[in-house]
């Protein structure tokens, strides 16, 4: 009965519940003592009741677990033993690996899927909780090597580098944005690799829930019956949703209802990997298919430490580390597939003797195939810009914020609705070519063919007033600023909410690299992202920031007294001087965690994703992309996994 009562509140905004509490903090003068006592008591009752109700419905958590009906419900998953033999071994249960393993299992093959992490936790199912997952146990959270040209205001001048470490990989911890990029992004000047070749694999897995919410012209670009659900995020009730769209439209940005159809250009409310108010990952799609659960074996919390390659350069299996110094050797009849991501796959290849000859010899690793593994890594990069908004009231008390969040979580637990079922403002995005923006007239133009090729993507987030001081560790995990910058931003956030704008460089010119730091496979590799080594990337960032300045200068933003926070940086010119934004970009650099290219098509793998010089070894993940797509990479990497499964099935004559 209790659940049915709460379910009927699905259409009620929890803002109505907390608006009376807001009044305690809305007046500029300090409240009278009597009012302060009443506000405190109201806060206390509000919080206690919320916690009590949350505990009462705690049993709901059982419904939120990932299906554990498979035999491998233990910490390590399915039982494996030294010397076991499988038809295929897939390393990495992320975007591509889950797709490859599931398709092979559906084809009747005996497949082992190896994952260094474990099960995703409850928070991974809540869209709004994505911000809490960075630097958690589900994140590799790699350290990087500074280049003294980027991330200069981060701790140690190092850029944060996250990758998912659990079933579903990064699809379990990312921001769930579903964008495929531009058709031209998939022409790799290699036989069989054009948009025409890869498009069917996007369509194969896509299960679009609401085709009727898109224009009729979008039907040819989508599928409604695939295994991976795609949908619009639910309404976050944030009024800045529409304001962001209207602000860009005033700069002549067209409203684009579908960035995955004919054109990317314009401002859009995009689709996401979401269904019914929950995150959709490759863990709760591919790996939870009934037939797959019966046939696929999964080794969790099991780290692959290398590929076993014999004297004839044939991959025979893998070595894995499991538990307290326990090492197993596992073998294959057919092939090993590496889907451990741009970082993990490159490291495993080099540990196994596949990589730059001179580098491998430094660590005493016998060279099996001299290839440029780890080279030419590229990643989407951005400067974070904070727009100060909603600063006409004092912030709510910590108790009120906690109580409000508790109610939002409770609403999500019962109804899968409310603010926690969205990713806030992040489903609003804009694609543009910055060279097709007229900075004098303050308007986007589209008068040349190249204007249809975006060079930048705007991504938004909302940060409530006072939230940094309430949860500094969450902020720091996502944006590890050094003390001076952190304090300035925190002080401003105590006065104003932020719209955080990420102006993403879609086709960066800078290239980084990855190398081994040790021959010990449990030691993380040495990663040099090398962001902003090419000045053209900084120039692109500055063009984007100037458009943000134009946007904040529109009447709509002026109506709400919005302004850009200009952080004072000791090594930069004054905030109103020439050169400030270029310097700012180098200090406030941030990665989108989209690294590709470390085992690229043509250089390391052939057109059927076979590692050159090694038989029975393939790679399927973001590392094979020679360059970045103009958009979020998860969609493309799942498509690569789907395509690799076809290659494997065809080449073994399993069709």
Counting copies of identical and different chains, the oligomeric state is single chain
Considering DSSP H and I runs of 4 or more, what fraction of the residues is helical?
A: 25-40%
Total helix count? 17
Biggest sheet details: 7 strands, mixed
* Strand coverage percent: 15-25%
Poorly predicted tracts of residues: 1-15, 25-30, 56-72
Number of strands: 25
State the CATH architecture of one domain. Answer: 2-Layer Sandwich
**Large-scale geometry:** globular
Q: What gap, in angstroms, lies between the N and C termini?
A: 52 Å
Q: If you compute it from the alpha carbons, what radius of gyration comes out, rounded to the nearest whole angstrom?
A: 25 Å
Q: Quote the average pLDDT.
A: 90
Class by helix and strand content?
alpha/beta
């Amino acid at each position: 009965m209790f659940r049915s009562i709460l379910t009927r509140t699905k259409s009620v905004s929890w803002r109505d519940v907390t608006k009376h509490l807001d009044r305690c903090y809305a007046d500029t003068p300090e409240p009278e003592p009597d009012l302060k006592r009443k506000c405190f008591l109201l806060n206390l009752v509000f919080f206690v009741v919320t916690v009590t109700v949350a505990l009462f419905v705690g049993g709901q958590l059982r419904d939120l677990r990932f299906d554990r009906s498979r035999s491998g419900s233990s910490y390590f998953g399915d039982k494996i033993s030294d010397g076991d033999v499988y038809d295929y071994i897939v390393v990495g249960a992320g975007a591509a690996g889950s797709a490859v393993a599931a398709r092979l299992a559906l084809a009747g093959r005996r497949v082992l899927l190896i994952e260094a992490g474990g099960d995703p936790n409850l928070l991974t199912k809540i869209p709004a909780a994505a911000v809490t997952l960075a630097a958690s146990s589900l994140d590799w959270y790699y350290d990087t090597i500074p280049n003294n040209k980027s991330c200069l205001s981060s701790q140690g001048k190092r850029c944060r580098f996250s990758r998912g470490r659990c079933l579903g990989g990064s699809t379990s911890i990312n921001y769930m944005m579903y964008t495929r990029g531009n058709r031209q992004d998939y022409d790799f000047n290699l036989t069989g690799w054009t948009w025409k070749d890869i498009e069917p694999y996007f369509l194969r897995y896509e299960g679009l829930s609401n085709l009727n919410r898109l224009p009729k012209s979008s039907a040819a670009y989508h599928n409604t019956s695939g295994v991976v659900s795609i949908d619009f995020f639910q309404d976050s009730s944030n009024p800045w949703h529409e304001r962001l769209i209207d602000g860009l439209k005033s700069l002549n940005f067209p409203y684009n209802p579908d960035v995955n159809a004919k054109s990317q250009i314009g401002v859009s409310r995009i689709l996401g990997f979401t269904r019914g108010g929950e995150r959709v990952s490759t863990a709760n799609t591919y790996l939870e298919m009934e037939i797959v659960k019966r046939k696929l074996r999964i080794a969790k919390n099991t780290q692959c430490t290398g590929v076993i390659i014999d004297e004839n350069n044939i991959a025979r299996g893998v070595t894995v580390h499991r538990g307290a110094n326990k090492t197993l050797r596992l073998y294959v009849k057919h092939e090993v597939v590496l889907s451990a991501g741009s970082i993990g796959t490159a490291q495993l290849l080099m540990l196994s003797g596949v990589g730059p000859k001179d580098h491998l010899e430094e660590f005493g690793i016998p060279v099996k195939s001299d290839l440029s593994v780890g080279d030419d890594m590229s990643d989407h990069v951005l400067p974070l810009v904070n727009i100060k908004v909603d600063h006409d009231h004092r912030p709510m008390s910590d108790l009120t914020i906690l109580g409000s969040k508790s109610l939002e979580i409770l609403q999500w637990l019962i109804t899968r609705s409310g603010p926690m079922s969205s990713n806030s403002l992040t489903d609003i995005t804009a694609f543009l070519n910055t060279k097709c923006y007229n900075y004098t007239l303050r308007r986007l133009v589209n008068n040349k063919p190249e204007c249809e090729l975006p060079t930048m993507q705007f991504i938004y987030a909302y940060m409530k007033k006072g939230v940094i001081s309430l949860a500094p560790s969450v902020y720091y995990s996502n944006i590890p600023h050094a003390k001076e910058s952190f304090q300035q931003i925190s002080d401003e956030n105590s006065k104003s909410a932020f719209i955080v704008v990420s102006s993403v460089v879609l086709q960066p010119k800078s290239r980084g690299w990855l190398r081994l730091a040790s021959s010990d496979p449990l030691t993380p590799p040495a990663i040099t992202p090398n962001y902003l080594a090419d000045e053209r990337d900084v120039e692109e960032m500055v063009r984007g920031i100037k458009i943000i300045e134009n946007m904040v200068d529109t009447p709509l933003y002026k109506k709400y007294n919005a302004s850009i926070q200009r952080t004072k940086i000791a090594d930069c010119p004054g905030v109103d001087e020439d050169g400030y934004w270029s310097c700012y970009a180098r200090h406030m650099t941030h990665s989108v965690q989209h690294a590709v290219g470390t085992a690229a098509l043509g250089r390391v793998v052939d057109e059927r994703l076979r590692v050159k010089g090694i038989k029975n070894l393939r790679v399927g993940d973001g590392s094979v992309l020679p360059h970045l797509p103009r958009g979020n990479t998860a969609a493309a990497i799942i498509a690569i996994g789907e395509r690799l499964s076809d290659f494997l099935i065809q080449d073994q004559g399993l069709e």
